[in-house]
Every structure is written in structure tokens, then in C-alpha cells.
Specification:
The complex is a heterodimer of chains A (259) and B (356). Chain A is an all-alpha fold. Chain A has a single domain, classed as Orthogonal Bundle (MetI-like fold), CATH 1.10.3720. Chain A is built from eleven helices and no strands. In chain B, strand 7, helix 6 and strand 8 form a beta-alpha-beta unit. In chain B, helix 4 crosses helix 5. By secondary structure, chain B is α+β, with helices and mostly antiparallel strands. Classes of the chains: A mainly alpha (259), B alpha+beta (356). At the A-B interface, helix 7 and helix 8 of A face helix 3 of B.
Chain lengths: 259, 356
């Protein structure tokens, strides 16, 4: 009994080391004075952060990424919640097909998705625009939002909404005062998670971004030029942003489910 | 409850879901201030009937009139027919006071009045001091009272209850029954109470409506339903009844070769009901005719002990016996007993093929 548990714990530890080692390395070297990542380390410095964030294009990329992440998160959370509610509330004939369609985007290879988005947004005259990236990221992130909202709705007593009607709330008002408040932790969590998905997303953004580069696209372009600890500095900021969003999402979800 | 115009009238109301008919043409009048229990096994259409009254289901055919107005399609939120849900359906993200004031808020009652009425209703139901308690920190009985306060705060003419006590412990059920009957008398409003529990229905209501397979089988006062079930379905559902069939000749019924008294019934085949509390049991053959049956088990039921017997031809028999008397008889499984009744005890079922 004891030995397998010990083995399992070691395995888990190794797994986390494997996943986080590159990130930790990158963070460590972002504060290292040496130009190249070599051991032993030089002295502690924040100069790479200073040089990186002194560049206007880095700020521009962060601004773009923030705009895209917030817009895409808002849209995909709204869309995901609406889809999940439709599934919760109504029974209809082609529901399995509807659900399959709603959950389809994450299964499409990203390169294909990027190409398709490029062609389609080009037709609409939106390729290379921030709006274009928002649309692409909304499509990609909405299924995650839907999955999270659906999970929460499944915990809702179906008579809760009917109880609101019964006490004089019109269907819209019941939605506002009962369904949305009940789902609020899931909605905020979905918002955080979809923002993280959008903020990190590289491939599709690379296809459709054009001159309005997001952070991941900019990182690639800097990398193609020269390897420089500035990348580590930018990478660390990106990582902290994403992990904060994901952890916030998890805390909200687990906090409510545990009750 | 006749006389004045009824508060609610169901007239040939039907409800089907696709090919399934949940309610098959019911007619029912409910008077003002009446406590009506709708009782039946699961799937009998009682909850659907209640939901139609609340506007949560639209009848497929027929009309439902509330206060003289046809309300078939009136949306739920435009009615004043609050419902106490089986799950209680309290809003978990609101505290006690916010739950209770919900109905007033939806009617845009000003804040000051809402607070005053919440205070009044919390006091009425013994919930003072719980205003800001979250719902998940209440006991079962407290939740029940919050649900009642939430439904009654708009002072409706009618309260609908859908098996509200089914999740409570036995001792709380009895206490809540007391709370409910007291409230109903004090407020003088109509209660429509759906349940599958005979004891709840009989303990509280003025009239009991027995439903089976989407139809109303019998309507009557609890005593009538208990003593004079209309058919086998009701007799079986009400429980603690003995259902026997035999041939009647000259004031006696022949049950499996034993001739037992049966007053006022003409000759011919008959099916009769004898309530368990009207059945006499003897430890040795009595001088008068009696059915011989083997003791099976006993079931303690407060006022007495319900004893189960197996009679001739696998006939299931029950008798309610005072505890002290049972001790004298020292029953044990398989031991023979003799069962009989007074001539005026049996009730004759009018329909032999009573199942609907």
C-alpha cells in the first residue's frame, strides 16, 4: 500500500518539475545579468525588463493583447453562457448536433483554424485588424466558457428558475435575478479562462494579426531576430498574467463546488 | 364545499406530453378557504395538476378558472399562486430576508414596506433573528418555514404545496403539519396540497382528492375516503385495508368456505373492504365463524400494532390490535389466528373491477 503511494507522489513531483522547469529557467535567466543563459549565473538585474519595456512595440503588443483578450473573453463568455443555458433550459430535436457543433472549435487543428480564419476574415475585409483577432479568439474560447457555465447550471435545481416565475418574476427578470447570480462564479471563471486562452494564443493570431501584433506574435518576431534575455523578461510577464487568470478561474470554480 | 362560487374550477382539463397523457380530463372545484389534498401514487398526474394551476404547464384541453377568470394561458409570473416546492427551491445566493422579500421585490413594492412585511412574516413563522443567515446554514425545518414565508408574503388567496414535507424527519413532519393547518386557519386562504402520503393528507385537509392514472378517482372528506373507498384502487392506496371477495347469500359472505357476516347486501358476488382497525383477532377458534390465518409480522403504529397475516389462498390480511392485547396473544410467525368482524364493519366496493 505505502510504496505505490510514494511512487505516485514522486511521479507527480517529476511531472510538475518537467512542466515548470522551462518556465522557472526562463524566469531565473530574466533576472540574470549575463547575455547568454550559462551557468554559473551572473548577478541579479532588472535591466532586461527595463530594455524590453522601453520599446514602444512591446507596449503596443501588450495593449493589443489586452484589448483582444478582454473583448474575446467578454464575447465568448456571453456566447458560452447563452449556449449552456439553451442546453439547460430547452429540449429540442437536434440537441446532440447543436452541442457537438458548439463544442467543435477546440478539436480543429490550429493551423487549419488559422488558415480558415485568414481566408474568411480576408473576405470580410477584417484580416489584419484587431476585430479579426477578436472574432477568431471568440470562436476558439467560447466552447471553454460554455463547458464551465454548463457545469454550474447542472448544479442548479431546475425549479429555482420556475420558483422565480412563480413569485412574479418575468422570464427576463428571473434570468437577471436568479440564473445569472447563481452562475456568477462560473461566469467570472469563464471570463478569466477565456481571457487566458486568448492572451496566450499564438498560431491563429499569427495568421490573422498582420501588423497589429499580439504579444506571442511579437515574441516570435523578436526571437527570429536575435536571442536576448528580454524574451525571458517578456515571457515571465506573460506567464504571470496567464497563471493569475487561470488560478483565479480555478479558485472560483472550486470554491463554489466544494459547498 | 358548495354554495358560493368556487375559487378554482377545473373543467375537463387534460394535459398530454406527446403520446403520454398525464392528466385525462379532470373536473374539480376548490372552494375559498378550503384545505384540499390531492393524493395519489407517483405518476398519477397530481403534480401536473398543481403545475397547471400555477401556470407552469399549459393544459392541452379544457379550462381552468381561477376567481371566475379562465387562466389556461396566463403566464406564471402574472398569477398570484405561490408554490412551496418539493425541493423548496430557496435561492442559495440570497439570505433569509432576501429570499422572503423576493415576491414583493418582483412586484416593485417599496423597500420600507418590504422590510416591514419581511419582519412580520419572519416573526409569524418563528424566524426572528435569522434575517441575514445564509440558506445553507439553516436546518430542514427552518428552510421549510423560510419557503412558507416567501410564498405567503404576497398574501395570496391560495397557496400551492408540492410534497413540501417529504424531505423532513418524521418528528418534524408532524410539527410542520401543525404549522400548516394553523396558518391555513388563521389566514383563511385556500391550500392545495399535493402528496403521496396518506397520513399527511388525512391529518390536514378538509377534502381529499384521490388521483390515479391521470384521473380523479374519488373526492371526499378524509373519513369518507378511509371508511368508504370507492373502488379497489382507493382501498389499496389508502392502506391498512383488507380487501376480500366472495359470494353473498342471506346476509353472509362466503370467503373461501367461511361464512362471515355482511349486513344489508343482496345476494351475488361481491368485493368488500374491512379496515384493519375493525378486524378482531382471536388466539383460539371463536364460537362465531372466523377466517383462519397464519401470523406473518407486526408493525408498530403508535395507536396500536398492525399485524400482518396470511389467510387461505395467499390472502393478505391486516388487523390493528392494541399493544397490550397483542402481548397476551404472544404471536410468532406461522402461529394460527382467527380473524372476524362485526356485520356492519365491511364496506362494499361498488366496482368489482375497480382499477382505473
Amino acid at each position: 500500500m505505502r510504496l505505490p503511494i510514494l511512487f505516485f507522489r514522486l511521479y507527480l513531483l517529476a511531472l510538475f518539475c518537467f512542466v515548470f522547469a522551462p518556465i522557472v529557467t526562463s524566469t531565473v535567466f530574466s533576472f540574470n545579468s549575463d547575455r547568454f543563459p550559462t551557468m554559473p549565473l551572473g548577478h541579479f538585474t532588472t535591466q532586461w525588463y527595463q530594455t524590453a519595456f522601453a520599446r514602444p512595440e512591446v507596449w503596443e503588443a501588450f495593449r493589443n493583447s489586452m484589448t483582444v483578450a478582454l473583448s474575446a473573453a467578454t464575447l465568448s463568455t456571453a456566447l458560452g453562457f447563452a449556449t449552456a443555458y439553451t442546453d439547460f433550459r430547452f429540449g429540442f430535436r437536434f440537441k446532440p448536433a447543436y452541442l457537438a457543433l458548439a463544442l467543435l472549435p477546440p478539436t480543429i487543428p490550429l493551423v487549419i483554424m488559422g488558415l480558415a480564419m485568414l481566408a474568411w476574415l480576408g473576405q470580410l475585409g477584417l484580416s489584419g485588424t484587431i476585430t479579426g483577432i477578436v472574432i477568431a479568439h471568440t470562436v476558439m474560447a467560447a466552447p471553454f466558457a460554455m463547458a464551465i457555465c454548463r457545469l454550474r447550471l447542472q448544479q442548479m435545481d431546475a425549479s429555482l428558475e420556475a420558483a422565480a416565475w412563480n413569485l412574479g418574476a418575468s422570464p427576463w427578470r428571473a434570468m437577471r435575478v436568479v440564473v445569472v447570480p447563481f452562475c456568477l462564479p462560473a461566469i467570472i471563471s469563464a471570463f478569466c479562462l477565456t481571457a487566458a486562452v486568448s492572451f496566450d494564443e499564438f498560431i491563429v493570431a499569427w495568421f490573422v494579426s498582420g501588423l497589429n501584433r499580439t504579444v506571442p506574435v511579437m515574441i516570435l518576431e523578436i526571437l527570429q531576430g536575435n536571442v536576448d534575455p528580454q524574451i525571458n523578461a517578456i515571457g515571465t510577464v506573460v506567464f504571470i498574467t496567464s497563471i493569475t487568470l487561470v488560478v483565479a478561474a480555478q479558485l472560483l470554480l472550486l470554491g463554489r463546488t466544494a459547498r | 364545499m358548495t354554495g358560493a362560487a368556487p375559487l378554482v374550477r377545473f373543467s375537463q382539463v387534460r394535459k398530454s406530453y406527446g403520446a403520454i397523457e398525464a392528466v385525462r380530463g379532470i373536473d374539480l372545484d376548490i372552494g375559498r378557504g378550503e384545505f384540499v389534498a390531492i393524493m395519489g401514487p407517483s405518476g398519477c398526474g397530481k403534480t401536473t395538476t398543481l403545475r397547471m394551476l400555477a401556470g407552469l404547464e399549459i393544459p392541452t384541453a379544457g379550462t381552468i378558472t381561477i376567481d371566475g377568470r379562465v387562466t389556461n394561458r396566463l403566464p406564471a409570473h402574472e398569477r398570484d399562486t405561490p408554490l412551496v416546492w418539493q425541493s423548496l427551491a430557496l435561492f442559495p445566493f440570497l439570505d433569509v430576508a432576501q429570499n422572503v422579500e423576493f415576491g414583493l421585490k418582483m412586484r416593485d413594492v417599496p423597500r420600507a414596506e418590504r422590510q416591514a412585511r419581511v419582519a412580520l412574516w419572519l416573526e409569524r413563522l418563528g424566524l426572528e433573528g435569522f434575517e441575514h443567515r445564509p440558506i445553507d446554514q439553516l436546518s430542514g425545518g427552518q428552510k421549510q418555514r423560510v419557503a412558507l414565508a416567501r410564498s405567503l408574503i404576497t398574501e395570496p388567496e391560495m397557496l400551492l404545496l408540492d410534497e413540501p414535507l417529504s424531505a423532513l424527519d418524521a418528528h418534524l413532519v408532524v410539527r410542520m403539519q401543525g404549522v400548516l393547518t394553523r396558518l391555513q386557519k388563521e389566514l383563511g386562504i385556500t391550500f392545495v396540497y399535493v402528496t403521496h402520503s396518506q397520513s399527511e393528507a388525512f391529518a390536514m385537509s378538509d377534502r381529499v382528492v384521490i388521483m390515479g392514472h391521470g384521473e380523479i378517482v374519488q373526492i371526499g372528506r378524509p373519513r369518507e375516503i378511509f371508511r368508504a373507498p370507492r373502488n379497489r384502487f382507493v382501498a389499496e392506496f389508502v392502506g391498512h385495508n383488507n380487501i376480500l371477495s366472495g359470494t353473498v347469500t342471506q346476509g353472509e359472505i362466503d370467503v373461501d368456505g367461511v361464512r362471515l357476516p355482511l349486513a344489508g347486501v343482496s345476494d351475488g358476488p361481491a368485493e368488500i373492504v374491512v379496515a384493519a382497525d375493525r378486524m378482531e383477532i382471536y388466539g383460539s377458534p371463536p364460537s362465531s365463524p372466523a377466517l383462519k390465518a397464519a401470523f406473518v409480522s407486526e408493525e408498530f403504529a403508535g395507536a396500536g400494532v398492525i399485524c400482518h397475516f396470511e389467510g387461505p389462498g395467499d390472502l393478505e390480511l391486516r388487523a390493528q390490535v392494541p399493544e397490550a392485547r397483542l402481548a397476551e396473544l404472544s404471536p410468532e410467525p406461522g402461529k394460527p389466528f382467527w380473524l372476524a368482524w362485526a356485520a356492519d364493519s365491511p364496506h362494499v366496493l361498488t366496482h368489482r373491477e375497480g382499477r382505473t
